[in-house]
Amino acid sequence: MGNVNADFLNQDYNLEFKHSKDHGPINTLINRELSWISFNWRVLQEANNKKVPLFERLRFLAISARNLDEFYTVRVAGFRQMVKNKIEVISADGLTPEEQLIQIEREAKALIEKQQELLPSILSNLKQKGVVLVKPNGILESEKKNLEKQFMSKVFPALTPLAIDPAHPFPFIPTEGSALALKLRNKNGKKSLNALVPIPGMLDRFQKLKDGAKGEKRFLSLEDFIVIFIHRLFPNYNLEEYFSFRILRDSDLEVEEEAEDLVREFEIALKRRKRGEVIRMKVTKSNAEPLLKLISKEIGFDRAQVIQVNEMIGLSDLEELIISAKRSLKWRTFVPRSPERIEDFNGDIFSAIKQKDLLLQHPYETFDTVVNFLEQAARDPNVIAIKQTLYRTTPDSPIVRALCAAAENGKTVTALVELKARFDEANNINVSRELEKAGAQVVYGFMDWKTHAKLSTIVRQEGKVLRTYTHVGTGNYHPDTAKIYTDLSLFTSDDTLGRDVTKVFNYLSGYIKPTDLESMIIAPLELKSSLIKMIKNEISLAKKGKPAEIWVKLNALIDPEVIDALYKASQSGVKINMIIRGICGLRPGIQGLSENIRVKSVIGRFLEHSRVCVFGNGFQLPSTKAKVFISSADWMGRNLNRRVESFVEIKNLTVKSQIVNQIMVANLADKEQSWVLQPDGKYKRHQFKPNEPSFSCHEYFIENPSLSGRGRAALNAPPSLLNTSKKRRKLF
Fold this sequence. Notes:
Blueprint: H1 32-46, H2 54-84, H3 97-128, E1 131-134, H4 144-154, E2 162-163, E3 178-186, E4 192-199, E5 206-208, E6 217-221, H5 222-228, H6 230-233, E7 237-249, H7 262-274, E8 278-284, H8 289-299, E9 307-309, H9 340-344, H10 349-355, E10 358-362, H11 368-379, E11 383-390, H12 398-408, E12 412-417, H13 425-438, E13 441-443, E14 450-451, E15 454-462, E16 465-473, E17 485-492, H14 495-510, E18 520-523, H15 527-543, E19 549-554, H16 560-571, E20 575-580, E21 597-602, E22 607-608, E23 611-615, E24 627-631, H17 637-641, E25 643-650, H18 653-669, E26 674-677, E27 683-685, H19 697-703
Helix pairs in contact: 1-2, 1-3, 2-3, 11-12, 12-13, 15-16
């Protein structure tokens, strides 16, 4: 196929793959699970990218390990249960659960091997830069005395050595829990002992040591620290063999649908999660095979499925080595921008929104604006009511504090807290209780559906009129993830959207099905059917000889019905450009099926999380005459069929231009961070030729402010986009 160009704006639609009927029918869908593993491969490749700063390479390695852990505790656990219970659910691409498990295990093994291969290289490079992970044999004799004092004061009190024999029941190891397994022998040589030392999860995985002679920042892993001073735990014994191990358990939750006290039911379910069935056990390599068989038996895990690694377990903890003292080893810093237009109104966000719609792109524009939106509402005597969805947020959330302050100030506050947000259930229970204590009305939505929409409304008395100010987001109300996820925040005082969002809140609180929505579509009621209808409209335009194009930016595309509609659109001549960060079940570039579809994945400094959909509507893209939407929903069965999601039409021309001509164009033009999906399901990165100019959409957004956020000082200075197609009309 030659060189892969990830800059779609400068490329014609080429026939990438010609399928011969002699080779039999082609599977038109890519397996969901294997596509997810492919995404994690792309994440891991950033750990091997020499253009990425060392600390960030270490972070990508940790992220890939954490992602794989979660994949096992949720997806693989589900397949294991299906196989165990002989449930034959065939995947969209025709595989049984058992067949998928076989392929998953093969791909996951290769991924783990690559993680272990990259770790020594990264650590070696870090050592050259003065950050050292010390091995036990690297501890100087001169420092052992002081190091022992550190061990006795900071580690020893938290440890519990446990013998493994009939008189001592084997301890429970929670999910993501780890321990040292030890084979010891009495110093007189007459008595052996098998023992276990659970590693406390609350202790730092990497203990800070005294700086080296040349100022090196030195660390020692907790398990190595314990091994060095194992005689303090087992006096009169010598250590013969040992290994560390870590387990993962099934983390799915089962909640009774008819539970009278939903919060209490989730609390019980969370306790059950900690004791879920073991679905993966990883150990460091050793010669202690009998001990490994014993531990596996006690845990209840098949020895044949134990994963042995050469370097280290628990790679997700590696981020502890990223220290502020080595700023040069991180991404260059940038300060998120505050919208100039709000500053033109002396910080009065309501006045700025009333003047014109405002769209911010995080993290390039500060998430503080969203927080200030609610904080100002809490203080404003003219604000009557606030409604808010909360899917994920921080334990000490400024969003929650603002809502509590508003309730305490006498405003009517309604918060939809989603208890089913995976791995945030406990935090959300605490959030709900905090809000209720402050006097807010807390609701939990639907038992069968998660509420994933990101919505907020503020009702303000302005003279004789009640004006609704609305925020619609593509990401969570989470100040921490807003620093690393790219997401969109729309602020508007548009009456139609305000009414629509109010109807959705009424649906969530009182099951009053919304009718006659004017500016938004919601799942699971109408979103899928509406998407297919809009795709069919582009098909109709193509058949009439009019321009027919679709631009889409999502995290995942897997719904077979939507994919089938896109295939039919391609066959009708509709040009489709898609930026799909993670899972993608669609095969692009196949003759007679998808030759007019191109798919890329952008992986870089920030996690692409915003969802955008642009239908040409009879105009060549980019065009502000297109129909433009932002959404909380990916195109997956769960989002379209089992979640409350928002799909909001953008009508303001400035915001439209910002999305189409700025955000989407930059993503489509990106070459630096883009991987292009091939018809066979593999991804290829653009290979730069000598002196070939590059383009990074992340760097572009760092340097260029959003169109709708510009103030009076920059009315005549819109941002410019370099490296766009000469075949396309002027963008700005």
